[in-house]
Specification:
With 258 residues, the chain is of the alpha/beta class. The chain has 2 domains: 195 residues, 2-enoyl-CoA Hydratase, Chain A, domain 1 (Alpha-Beta Complex), CATH 3.90.226.10; 47 residues, Lyase 2-enoyl-coa Hydratase, Chain  A, domain 2, CATH 1.10.12. The chain is built from 11 helices and 10 strands. Strands 1-2-3-5-7-10 form a 6-stranded mixed beta sheet, with helices on both faces. A 4-stranded mixed beta sheet has the order 4-6-8-9. Strand 1 and strand 2 form a beta hairpin. The two termini are 24 Å apart. The chain binds acetoacetyl-coenzyme A.
Length: 258
């Protein structure tokens, strides 16, 4: 499944996908997005995989943004096309039917920060730095960063990061709610794998339905969203996992989800 820009390693029920262009701090190209689109489709179908972790090669960067050398070649239509391709694949991360965790091992800048925000959770090394430095290049975030950042940390903090282009530390990213937790850099993969392991033994169908309820519901008004949740709650009763999970509780045993 690996490609020239992405490596994938499966370890039991967890797949680790590594952005692999450390010489350019894993900057994102059209090739990366095309490879990621295919890889996500394959991993979505792979019944053995329950959780996906995204990380960057090397100890310096998760992803330092879109490839600035490539951006330099773009005209108006080309820039829009690149943004739409990136958004399509980044939306695929958000809609992925299993949990996706970003293990952020260094710089998460521009498109890298934007891609991480589509993941369900972000675990950051204490050495990681976050930023939307596009204004320094005279451009704006184009991979839906203006939207996801504002939704995650609120408009004021999003505007501060986007208008100044300054980087923030992992500790500050945790304080404003941009990351779930910060861990020592040398324990990043261990801690992220441990977080993943707390999900692999749960009901995959219940996790997928919860993810859909949260991601779609949060964009609706409350009453519609609560109704949507009730619909999905009802649907969860049609799954074998609901029969097994409830029976296991009543029989005082551990559930065996398939
Ligand atoms: N695109 C292409 N190459 C990049 C890159 C990027 N986004 N970021 C870093 N690189 C390359 C550098 O050019 C350099 O290559 P060479 O060795 O061939 O010169 C290599 O990676 C290492 O980088 P530095 O020497 O600059 O490393 P540093 O430690 O001195 O600085 C850094 C690290 C602060 C992250 C700095 O590299 C930097 O500021 N990078 C650009 C960050 C940025 O502006 N990202 C936003 C891009 S725009 C975007 O993402 C648009 C969008 O989403 C729509």
């Amino acid at each position: 499944m690996s490609s020239s820009t992405l490596l994938v390693e499966k370890n039991g029920a967890v797949a680790v996908v590594t952005f692999n262009n450390p010489k350019a701090l894993n900057a994102l190209t059209v090739d990366t997005f095309e490879a990621l689109e295919q890889m996500l489709s394959d991993l979505a179908e792979d019944q053995d995989v329950r959780v996906v972790i995204l990380t960057g090669a090397g100890d310096k960067a998760f992803i330092a943004g879109g490839d600035i050398g490539f951006l330099a070649t773009l005209d108006v239509a080309g820039a829009r096309r690149f943004a739409l391709l990136a958004q399509k694949v980044i939306d695929q991360i958000e809609a992925f039917p299993k949990p996706v965790i970003a293990a952020i091992n260094g710089y998460a800048l521009g498109g890298g920060c934007e891609l991480s925000m589509a993941c369900d959770m972000r675990v950051a090394a204490d050495t990681a730095r976050f930023g939307q430095p596009e204004v320094k290049l005279g451009i704006i975030p184009g991979f839906a960063g203006t939207q996801r950042l504002a939704r995650l940390v609120g408009k004021a903090k999003a505007k501060e990061m986007i208008f100044t282009g300054e980087m923030i530390s992992a500790a500050d990213a945790e304080r404003i709610g941009l990351v779930n937790r910060v861990v020592p850099a040398d324990l990043l993969m261990e801690e992220t794998q441990a977080l993943a392991a707390t999900m692999t033994d749960k009901s995959a169908s219940a996790i997928a339905l919860s993810k859909e309820a949260i991601d779609h519901g949060v964009e609706m008004d409350f009453a519609r969203a609560a109704r949507y949740e009730a619909d999905l709650f009802g649907l969860s009763f049609a799954t074998p996992d609901a029969q097994e999970g409830i029976a296991a509780f009543l029989e005082k045993r551990s559930p065996q989800f398939k």
